Amino acid sequence: MARYTGPVCRLCRRERMKLFLKGDRCFKEKCAIERRAYPPGQHGQRRGRRSSGYGPQLREKQKVKRIYGVLEKQFRNYFKDAERQRGVTGDNLLVSLERRLDNVVYNLGFASSRSQARQLIRHGHIQVDGAKTTIPSYQVKTGQQIQVKEGSRKNEFIRASVETARGRGIPSWLELDPDNFVGKVIALPTREDIKLPIEEQLIVELYSR
Question: Where is 177: in which H helix or E strand?
């Protein structure tokens, strides 16, 4: 599957905010936003925000794509599905992205970033209801258990991530047993559960053009 393989710190700088794409580094002084809080490139320090309606809409879409690690075609499919569902399109879009298995693995603390979560899933370290699942975009359901495979629980990166998660907390729609590396989906997420700084209405307006 196609994915972005370039320097992720440039993505945070382009959006002028922390997207938390590089795990623990995002919380340290080495974070690119802490050192250079302006867009990358030759004219980054002189580049201003676009004042047109299209500019902010595009930037919001790009920001959400980068947070969840999906590319344009996949993101557009998420939007089409959100339109077909009952309810508010923008809310449906964010809830679908939030239900991705890689996002759940990250929020449970089994990985320090969503990209690391995708790698763990593809390499078979994660199980859903006791069965190996290697699809990062898998949509979790209420009542399902997500756990680290028993043979992978001594992995130093996973253990360090779980310890970090103890301090940062997990979303209210998830439940974590850190000692056994087991998480559970106790409810589907709602828009109120998603604390990311996202203005989803801008994305809806962009695709409605």
Answer: strand 174-177
pLDDT, position 19: 64
Cα angle at 104 between 94 and 16, to 5 degrees? 55
Q: Let me know: does 183 contact 104? Beta carbons within 8 Å.
A: yes
CA pair distance 109, 166, nearest whole angstrom: 8
Count Cβ neighbours within 10 Å for each residue of 23-44 and write b for 16 or more, e otherwise. Answer: bebbeeeebbbeeeeebbeeee
Q: How far apart, in whole angstroms, are the C-alpha atoms of residue 69 and residue 75?
A: 10
Starting at the earlier edge strand, list the strands of the sheet with 145-148.
Answer: 131-132, 126-128, 145-148, 182-185, 174-177
Span 135-172, pLDDT tens digits: 999 999 999 999 999 999 998 889 888 887 777 788 99
Name the amino acid, one letter, at 93: L
> What pTM was estimated for this model as a whole?
0.80
- pLDDT for position 17: 60
> DSSP per residue over 7-34, as a string?
-HHHHHHHHTS----SGGGGGSTT-HHH
